[in-house]
Every structure is written in C-alpha cells, then in structure tokens.
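Deliverable D4.2, example record:
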Amino acid sequence: MDDFPAKTATIDDVAKLAGVSIATVSRTISKPEKVAESTRKKVTAAIARTGYVANAMARNLRLKRSQMVLVLTPSIADPNFPGILIGLEKAASKRGYGVLIGNTDGGVTQEESYLRFLSTGMADGLIVLTGHLPVAGWGNSAAAFPPLVAATRPIDHFDIDYVGVNDMVAAKMATEYLVSLGHMHIAYIAGPAGSAVSENRQAGYAKAMSAEWLVDGDGTIEGGRAAVERLFIRDTLPTAFFCFNDDTAIGVIGALKSRGYRVPEDFSVIGFDDIPYANTITPSLTTVRQPRLQIGETAMGILLDKLTGNRDAPSKRLLHGDLVVRESCTRPRRHLLSAKRGARS
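Output generated by the structure prediction step:
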C-alpha cells in the first residue's frame, strides 16, 4: 500500500521518505551532479514512490525549463554518431537532462520542424553537428539563438563554442607516419567541397609534405573509388593515399583491388575517424581515431554550463586524435608507378 495515497506529494514527503533534508531533495532535482550518488539514488527512489516527479516537472514548466537538449545531426546513419550520442547522453544524464535527436538529412524543412522544440520551450539548448547554423527560425545571427554548441564540424564566421578533434594536428601526424615509412608521393583525397573539416585536414597534410598532391572527393565510398579512377588517367601515381575519412579510404582500397593492385604491397592507404568497421575490412585500415565519447561529453558539459550561467566567452576545444596502425600501410616498393603500365597480373 502506498504511503501517500490521499494527497498530492510534496517535497517534504520526499525528504522524509529518503531521510534527507528538503534542501537536498531540491539540489538533487536541480543540480544532481552536486549530490553524492548514494544520496541521489535514495532521493530518486523516493520521488518515484511518492509521485513527486510530476511536481518536479511542473516546477520546470514554471521556470520555463524543459531539462531537455536538442541535438541536430545531418544523419543518424553516420558511423561517428552513435559514439558521440553516448557521450552526449552520459553527460546530460549526470546533470538531470535528457536528449532529443533531430535527424535533418540536410533538409531545411526538417531543421525548421525540430527548431520548434526550442521556440515552444520543449528544449532548453541546442547542440549542432551539421556544421552550419539552422537556416530557419532565428535567421543567421548566432547571438539570436538559444544557448548552442557546435560539435564535430565547426561553424565558420561565427563566435560559437565548438568541440571537435584537432583535424590539422591529427592529419599532419597521419601524413608524417606515411613519410616515416619512406613515402614521398602521397595524395590527399579531399572531402566534400567547402567542408571546413576537409580543409583543416588538408592543411595538416600540407604541413608534412614538401609538395601537395590533391584529389577531389566527397567523403563517400564511391567518391574514393572515383578519385582513384581519375588518377589512373595520369602518367604517374602516388605510392600512398591519405583520405579525408574512412569511407573514402575504403573506396580507394576497393578501386585499387579492382585494378589488380594490392594494399599495402603496391599502395598504402590511411583513413580518418576509425569507424566501427575499419578493423573488419581486408586489409584492416590504418586510421586516425576520433575521441567520439569525449567530444559528446565535452560538448554537453559546455552547453549545460551555458544554461546555468557558468560560462562567458565562447571557446574552441580541440581534442587529440590517435593514430591507429593496422595493416593498410607499409614501406613503398617503388618511387613512382606508371599508370600506363596497367594493372598487375
């Protein structure tokens, strides 16, 4: 039988059942990260038993707080997204917040629909993984938006908090690894046109090279295949490929194999991201691992600090990427290959 069936539960009821003070109950609801885990569990159990959770929700509405954060992503199919989401939810949960996911598929209509969560008070803040400010809702002024943080893809020309991997430093490290193996002729297969991430990775590649060898790409497996096919109409070929991302690298490996070449015996290939299946292809892919969990946790922490008034000027947090050495790179067997010699038999 319930202890409090005849009346609406109060914060005092919760405090008595949990054996703590009213102030501790209030702190657990508003700032759970500042309450010991054992105490938090007792208060949470008491809230659930008394039904006071409804009163807590009403309090949030009176304060115009939803305790929810909206996350806009261009695609939930992006293999980087699950790791980032885990980090976002982990950090949000510790501080009593939930996460709403807006999968935009790059569409303005979808963005506009999801932004209604902010305009109607169903979400308190915004984390953007798309690389741009939403074109609908508040115009193109970052200052006009509710509290927001960009993650994984920087938003150019705006003073906005950003969290992501240090693309330039990581790309330089990856290229220097190929150079250390003896490669002098390394092609960079770029990402989508206009991508700040691709430009930063290209800049890191350039810092490690005396002469650049740039090939257009679009960040997809098919884009990697197409980049290789365009190279084969030239008189010379690189001995190694540094690719914008792992999908591009997988496409490059597939195209080389289809022409009868071997990786890494004939060409070395290195990617970026360390997506879940980078270790399952043949050969397993040498790549740069993004700290996805840490990116999510850091971005959410910054946003929640903004919501509670604990942050001032926007900042950029660039995290370290780790080189993961697998099977797709080795020392070059020749200086330059002639494209006119054709595929190996």
